[in-house]
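Input record, target 12 of the design panel.
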């Protein structure tokens, strides 16, 4: 549940210490571009954020295994979420995005590739966890909610792709990120409230 809040704090802070930055026009990754103000501080916060994703993925795996390990599709979904956390570690620190309009670099191109991988891992994790909820008959409504979330993410991601380079690029990206994060928050809240109790 802390992950979305930390991400929001990190993004707001990064924009606040960079006077020329626009949350509407610029992507989040541009806060971590080489030469950005206070990049070290933001890299540290991003690393903590990524580590929390990994820890949540491990917790998700333990939760699925404890509740219904016979439906392995849930475990695969948890593994994918954990993998997303590991990939996220590299996106800001090892392979930061190039500054907008600058000469493309290998690190910047890798950042684009890894960002796409993160999106796929996130979507497939939500899909598999949603299927797991339905098959396990624990909280089938969350499975339906997961499918709806994926649909909204795909639509918003398409809208973001159509607006790359436009004056609202940053806004469309943030909407996509927010949709994914609200799923993570709700799932974490559900896990926390159940504390191992399978009844809803």
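The sequence produced for target 12 reads:
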């Amino acid at each position: 549940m802390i992950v979305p809040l930390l991400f929001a704090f990190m993004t707001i802070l990064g924009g606040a210490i960079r006077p020329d930055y626009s949350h509407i026009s610029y992507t989040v990754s541009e806060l971590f571009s080489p030469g950005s103000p206070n990049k070290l501080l933001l890299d540290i916060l991003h690393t903590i954020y990524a580590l929390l994703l990994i820890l949540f993925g491990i917790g998700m795996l333990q939760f699925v295994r404890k509740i219904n390990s016979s439906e392995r599709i849930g475990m695969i979904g948890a593994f994918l979420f954990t993998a997303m956390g590991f990939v996220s570690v590299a996106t800001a620190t090892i392979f930061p995005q190039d500054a907008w309009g600058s000469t493309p670099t290998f690190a910047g191109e890798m950042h684009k590739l890894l960002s796409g991988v993160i999106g796929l891992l996130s979507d497939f994790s939500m899909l598999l966890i949603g299927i797991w909820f339905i098959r396990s008959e624990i909280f089938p409504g969350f499975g339906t909610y997961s499918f709806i979330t994926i649909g909204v993410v795909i639509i918003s991601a398409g809208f973001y792709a159509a607006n790359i380079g436009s004056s609202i690029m940053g806004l469309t990206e943030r909407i996509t990120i927010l949709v994914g994060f609200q799923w993570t928050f709700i799932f974490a809240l559900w896990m926390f409230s159940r504390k191992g109790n399978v009844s809803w």
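The CA atoms of residues 39 and 136 lie 44 Å apart.
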